[in-house]
Amino acid sequence: MRKFTSVIKVKGFAVHHSRRLSETTLEKTQIASIFFAEVARVFLFITVLVRESFSRDFELREFFRQCFQIGYKTLPLVSVTGAIMGLVLTIQSRPVLVDFGAVSWLPGMVSVSLIKEMGPVITALICAGKIGSGMGAELGSMKVTEQIEAMEVSSINPMRFLVVTRVAAATLMIPLLILYADALGILGSWAGANIKGSVSFVLFFSQAFSPVDFIDFLPAVLKSFFFGAVIGLVGCYKGYNAGRGTESVGVAANSAVVMASLLVIIIDLIAVQITDMLLL
Amino acid sequence: MKTKQTETFDKVHYKTKNNEPVIEITNLRKSFNNQEVLKDVSLKLFDGENLVVLGKSGSGKSVLIKCIVRLLNPDGGTISVFDENVMALQRNELNELRKKIGFLFQSGALYDSMTVKQNLEFPLRRIRKDLSEKDIKEKIAEVLENVGLPDAQNKMPSQLSGGMRKRISLARTIVVDPLIMLYDEPTTGLDPATSDEISLLINDVQTKYKTSSIIITHDIACARANANRIVLLLDGAIYKEGSLETFEHSTDPEIKSFFR
């Protein structure tokens, strides 16, 4: 009897674990299939985007409207962020440099860190928040209210009108915003240098640009084009592929910001590695 | 003065005079996540007629007309519009066909970022490239006059009421002179008076623009005002097809639940 009971127990144990194993495998397979389906959708989206970007009927008017929306309307936010970035960096770094008697290095140090790293990354993150979420929410609400379908049935290509123009405008305008933020950052730094000390505008700028070569601008400007493209792409992708309910508009906007910010950081890491390899 | 019955007879008679189907759907099937929404639906839309597709919410009415313009791809069956197999069309061929079809969305689907005038210009400039600036202006003024909103050109969609949005949406659809109109719940969410106005407008569109229309609705007043023929869709399949009279006098409980 005891032998019989133990056989039943072993059998029960085996059945239970094999069931759990099959459930876990199924779950993992489903997760993998969802992941690969998403990857396929992203590639398809990019393929269509590239194809439509080189079509004859480029929506020039909408492109300029988007440049205005992205560039001009983000200017106040980028101005404040850029100026504060330079000011804070100067105020924080000054005491350390004073201790080493290296205050004259302050303008150069601030300008190099602003141009090479802080300006592009922080401005891109600000843009991911404002522009990426804006695109995600706008296209998401257009999807929910059937405006994208209305374009399709009117024989108007929504990819060409909505996505190509936005991604192109973001790719062009975000590098310009980054350069603008760099300039205001250096101005903010000059203001910061004059809070505790006194330095003339001409002297500050000659010291700020003495350690900076054209080659320092190049990788920063190049990566900022990638930042712009990725912010536009992610914002449009998330909005364009939003679900049906109103809740999906918020989800699209939110996930656009998160994904775009993450990709900005990853692109920055890759760009730094490549620059390091090429310049060493 | 024609009686209502004579008018209905004329509408049915109109259909029989033009017995060429402009849309022919055969055994259409569509599922979402293993749930069958359309089950072997077959129907024809004849030249110049108003076909009303009645059905409860979730019976697959909107899916049916979205399949016609290939906003949704069916799982099986064929859809032929002007003798062209919609499923076999390439992207540019499909776009050419879509230019002949007007689609009035349930929500209106007006472009929020554009004024009423820009909403109308948007498809017009892209579809009717032969028109001059003067023609475009005249065309926009004409359709706005036809929908009874001649002074709405510079308004934003957010400044319009539900009924006005439907009218402007209809104006945007007819501005490109479509041959077929697909109405997705044109009177949903409107008060009875505005619903009647929209129903009259649908009749006007048929008369003025000589369109053939499929009207998806569960609003019996709209069906009564516009139907040359009615198809009742029940759980994704065609339950009954016939004239308005047939439906009005039917003793079938499923039909009577609509025509009370």
Relative strand content of chain B: 25-35%
Low-confidence stretches of chain A: none
Distance between the termini of chain A: 78 Å
The number of distinct β-strands of chain B equals 10
Q: How many strands, what sense, and barrel or not for the largest sheet of chain A?
A: none
SSE pattern of chain A: HHHHHHHHH
Number of helices of chain A: 9
- Roughly what is the average pLDDT of chain A, rounded to an integer? 90
Question: Which structural class best describes the helix and strand composition of chain B?
Answer: alpha/beta
Helix content of chain A: over 70%
Characterize the largest beta sheet of chain B: strand count, sense, and whether it forms a barrel. Answer: 6 strands, mixed
H/E element order of chain B: HEEEHEEHEHHHEHEHEEHH
Keywords:
heterodimer, A: 280 residues, mainly alpha, 2 domains, 9 helices, 87% helix, extended, B: 260 residues, 4-stranded antiparallel beta sheet, 10 helices, 40% helix, 25% strand, transmembrane helix (chain A), phospholipid transporter activity (chain A), membrane (chain A)
What does this structure look like?
The complex is a heterodimer of chains A (280) and B (260). Chain A is 87% helix and 0% strand. Chain A has helices at residues 2-53, 60-71, 75-99, 106-144, 147-153, 158-196, 201-209, 214-240, 247-279. In chain A, helix 4 (106-144) crosses helix 7. Chain B is α/β, with parallel strands linked by helices and 260 residues long. Chain B has one domain (4-256): 3-Layer(aba) Sandwich (Rossmann fold), CATH 3.40.50. Chain B is 40% helix and 25% strand. Chain B is built from ten helices and ten strands. Chain B has a six-stranded mixed sheet, with helices on both faces. Chain B is globular, with a radius of gyration of 18 Å. Chain B starts with a helix and ends with a helix. The model of chain B is unreliable at 1-17 (pLDDT under 50). The chains are: A mainly alpha (280), B alpha/beta (260). At the A-B interface, helix 4 and helix 5 of A face helix 3 and helix 4 of B.
